[in-house]
Write a structure and sequence with these properties.
The complex is a heterodimer.
Chain A (H helix, E strand, L loop, with lengths): L1 E6 L3 H13 L2 E6 L2 H10 L4 E5 L7 H9 L9 E6 L5 H8 L3 E5 L3 H12 L3
Parallel strand pairs in A: 1-2, 1-3, 3-4, 4-5
Chain B lengths: L1 H13 L4 E5 L10 H7 L3 H4 L10 H5 L2 H12 L1 E9 L5 E12 L5 E10 L1 H23 L3 E6 L5 E4 L1 H7 L3 H4 L10 H5 L2 H12 L1 E9 L5 E12 L5 E10 L1 H57 L8 H31 L7 E5 H19 L2 E5 L5 E5 H17 L5 E8 L6 E7 L6 H6 L21 H11 L3 E8 L3 E8 L7
Parallel strand pairs in B: 11-13
Antiparallel strand pairs in B: 1-4, 2-3, 3-4, 5-6, 5-9, 7-8, 8-9, 10-12, 13-14, 14-16, 15-16
Helix pairs in contact in B: 11-12, 12-16, 13-14, 14-16
The chains are: A alpha/beta, B alpha+beta.
Chain lengths: 122, 507
């Protein structure tokens, strides 16, 4: 079973993603802010990470930077998640070093496909 | 004696610029010279023996000017006159004429010499000069809009015109001899402004200034002043002319204008602030409005998928309605936000290298579930692939709009998405064709207007925002540098196109 960390401040959305991922046989760890996210990534062995861009404390780009410096998990695929994005978000996140990109609203069938496209056969 | 006479005759004959001829006491022409021939046009044999009145205008002959001239010459010995005379060809010339009496040994007048010169050119020059002098004099004297006066080198007033009274309120005799400082505000006098102005006029020939001046009654007016240095023929400064105009009204208008400008600038600043506030509002609203909707769409979605356990068909039906409505509301919000961004000029363009086949595949996979549900087949015709530099997300949005419309309005048959490149000009067309209900010609024309909903007899009323095609058109023309087009036949199907201009592409 793959382990995924989801960092998302909106509890409803976090619950939604968690349910979908668990149903699809992922082990899900959650964090509701950037700081906790980095803390978990420092301590737990992860297969990939889903990161909301708009977080209350530090934004997704800062969290990404912090995780990339970690000994463990520093090289894991990290997927950005934003609500229906403005043009340019896609470019911005890919340029910043994210491995993939998913848009809200989260829809069960779509999100799994998008995740698998990024992580492949991890 | 005879020799001398002959000498004079030859001399007179050869003079070309003067008409010199002898006339008898009663005005009969006795002799004629070369100058007379040149000036008047007659040959000797034509005029000798005729009366000099042939040279005079009719009105002079009638008023006996000829006889009067001769009479004066015989009384005073000489008579000089200027006036119009007639040439042989009837044309006039301005003549200077000197008639001199010739006496015999007894002092009796035996005839006259008459010397005539053509002064036409000189006369016309004089006339012009006189005219302009007169005009100038009358202008200076009577012009009430300009105060014009002559001042000495040290600034004392020598002469002035009517306008001075009008503008400054003084009578001429009150100020002649006074210094022009009486017209200046005290602070200017103390600051030495007048001396500076005169010095500048002296240095540069002219000096222009605007500022407050004082009337006789002590009130101020806003004056435009031009001081011009005057020199005599030896280039020595002899004084100045000073032309003053009352620009008070103009000045007030200007001040008012500055005031308006000021308030416009303030309003502009305020507008900018409001605009910024609106952008912030839009940005935060878009987030705040979408978040709960995402939750509704997501959770109804997972229940519908059976992730929370089995649900009854009725529950599924009702949840589907909720899910569909939430999605509809979300797309409405998205469209409105996009449109307001475009209309506010706030939308940014992010061109990136894009494979059209990829974008089309993405759009197809998005609508595939709905198409499957209706049993529609979606074909794509994207080979060879076209790669262009374009705002990928906006292009995706436009194609997706066409495609979801095609799915919505087609009951049976196929939908085809294709892209073609015109080799001739490099333009790229993206076409979405369907075998759907089609659109009538009159509806086709208003299709790309906002909030257009065309009534259809579809079994299920298709949900839409009424903004989709309008937004697609706006995005295509303003972001993608292209145009939109629609062709349709009622009952047969439609083709919607995005035509991208060549200069979009750098790849």
């Amino acid at each position: 079973m793959k382990t995924v960390l989801v960092v998302e401040d909106n509890v409803d959305n976090l619950e939604l993603i968690t349910v979908i991922l668990r149903q699809n046989c992922f082990k899900v760890l959650t964090a509701e802010n950037g700081e906790n996210g980095v803390k978990i990534a420092t301590e737990e062995q992860l297969d990939f990470i889903i990161l909301d861009i708009q977080l209350p404390d530090m934004d997704g780009f800062d969290v990404l930077k912090a995780i990339r410096t970690l000994k463990i998990n520093g090289d894991r695929p990290i997927i950005a998640m934003t609500s229906y994005a403005m043009s340019g978000d896609r470019q911005k996140v890919m340029k910043a070093g994210f491995n993939g990109y998913i848009e809200k609203p989260i829809e069960p069938e779509r999100i799994i496909r998008q995740i698998k496209e990024v992580i492949g056969d991890l | 004696m005879e020799e001398r006479k002959e000498f004079y005759r030859l001399l007179v004959d050869s003079i070309r610029d003067y008409a010199i001829f002898m006339i008898s006491t009663d005005g009969i022409i006795k002799s004629w010279n070369e100058g007379a021939r040149r000036i008047k046009g007659y040959d000797t044999e034509e005029v000798v023996g005729k009366h000099i009145s042939i040279f005079y205008p009719k009105e002079d002959v009638i008023t006996r000017q000829v006889e009067l001239g001769l009479q004066k010459a015989s009384e005073d010995g000489e008579f000089e006159d200027e006036g119009w005379r007639i040439k042989k060809d009837g044309s006039r010339f301005w003549a200077n004429v000197i008639i001199t009496a010739v006496y015999n040994g007894d002092g009796k007048v035996i005839g006259f010499t008459k010397v005539t010169r053509d002064f036409t050119n000189r006369h016309q020059g004089e006339l012009k000069l006189k005219e302009s002098e007169e005009r100038y004099r009358s202008v200076v004297k009577s012009d009430k809009d300009y105060a014009i006066f002559l001042i000495s080198t040290d600034g004392s007033i020598k002469r002035w015109n009517e306008g001075v009274k009008q503008i400054k309120g003084y009578n001429p005799e009150e100020v002649i001899g006074k210094h022009i400082s009486i017209f200046y505000p005290k602070e200017d006098v103390i600051a030495g402004k007048i001396e500076k102005e005169l010095q500048k006029a002296k240095d540069n020939g002219q000096f222009e200034d605007e500022g407050w001046r004082i009337k006789k009654d002590g009130s101020r007016f806003w004056a435009n002043v031009v001081i011009t240095a005057i020199y005599d023929k030896d280039d020595k400064l002899i004084g100045f002319t000073k032309v003053t105009r009352d620009y008070t009204n103009r000045y007030r208008d200007q001040q008012k204008l500055f005031g308006y400008q000021d308030s416009i600038e303030r309003a502009n600043t305020k507008l900018k602030e409001l605009d910024q506030l609106k952008s912030m509002f839009l940005a935060s609203m878009s987030h705040e409005l979408r978040t709960p909707l995402n939750s509704i769409i997501g959770f109804t979605g997972i229940i519908l998928q059976g992730l929370d356990g089995e649900i009854t068909p009725l529950q599924k039906d009702h949840l589907s309605r909720a899910n569909r409505s939430a999605k509809h509301l979300l797309s409405l919000i998205n469209d409105v936000i996009d449109l307001s961004r475009i209309e506010a000029g706030m939308i940014d363009i992010f061109p990136e290298v894009t494979s059209l086949a990829d974008v089309i595949d993405d759009t197809v996979s998005w609508v595939q579930p709905q198409a499957d549900e209706k049993g529609l087949v979606i074909h794509t015709n994207t080979q060879p692939d076209i790669v262009i530099e374009i705002d990928r997300k906006r292009l995706y949005q436009c194609i997706l709009n066409y495609l979801s419309n095609a799915v919505k309005f087609t009951e049976t048959g196929t939908i085809t998405v294709s892209c073609t490149k015109h080799e001739a000009n490099g333009d790229v067309d993206i076409n979405v064709s369907d075998t759907g209900i089609g659109i009538s010609k009159e509806n086709l024309e208003k299709l790309f207007n906002p909030f257009v909903r065309i009534d259809s007899h579809l079994r299920t009323k298709a949900l839409g925002t009424g903004l989709g095609l309008y937004l697609t058109k706006k995005l295509t023309t303003e972001i993608l540098n292209g145009t939109v087009e629609a062709q349709s036949q009622l009952g047969k199907g439609s083709t919607f196109s995005i035509k991208l201009k060549e200069d979009n592409k750098k790849v």
